[in-house]
């Protein structure tokens, strides 16, 4: 977390925005006689909103707790992707981002809650 005062944030707003976008961190803007504020990238914000939404469901929260427990007891093993897997994952993310941008340009935007519900329904249908 980076902290800047209000004057510095105003004078270097582009730099502040570039930093939060590049580093995936937040910047606190401190004000002497008022409440502080936080600047974060849209990706970071969307991630927080999605996490909050997913944790609203007791079943999802329990599943996450079980997953964290397995990770902590090393039942789940982490591994590094080889170069080919790493490149393939980047290409998939880029393709998805391009589709998303094309949807935005075409005015085909969706409510996040509705989209998450649709994903859950598709996953449930596949598991049957």
Automatic annotation (TrEMBL):
Which first-to-last residue range defines the signal peptide? Answer: none
Protein name in the entry: Antitoxin
Q: Which family does it belong to?
A: Belongs to the phD/YefM antitoxin family.
Q: Which SUPFAM superfamilies match?
A: YefM-like
**Which InterPro entries does the entry mention?**
Antitoxin_Phd/YefM, phD/YefM_antitoxin, YefM-like_sf
- Organism, by scientific name, is Noviherbaspirillum pedocola
**Protein origin, superkingdom:** Bacteria
Query: Do you know which Pfam families this protein is assigned to?
Result: PhdYeFM_antitox
Report the function annotation for this chain. Antitoxin component of a type II toxin-antitoxin (TA) system.
């Amino acid at each position: 977390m980076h902290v800047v005062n209000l004057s510095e944030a105003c004078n270097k707003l582009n730099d502040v925005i570039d930093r939060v976008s590049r580093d995936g961190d937040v910047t606190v803007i401190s004000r002497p006689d008022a409440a502080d504020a936080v600047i974060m990238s849209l990706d970071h914000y969307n991630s927080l909103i999605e996490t909050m939404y997913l944790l609203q469901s007791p079943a999802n929260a329990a599943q996450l707790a079980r997953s964290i427990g397995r990770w902590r007891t090393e039942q789940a093993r982490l591994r590094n992707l080889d170069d080919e897997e790493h490149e393939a994952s980047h290409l998939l993310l880029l393709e998805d981002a391009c589709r998303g941008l094309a949807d935005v340009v075409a005015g085909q935007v969706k409510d996040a809650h509705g989209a998450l519900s649709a994903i859950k329904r598709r996953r449930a249908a596949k598991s049957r």
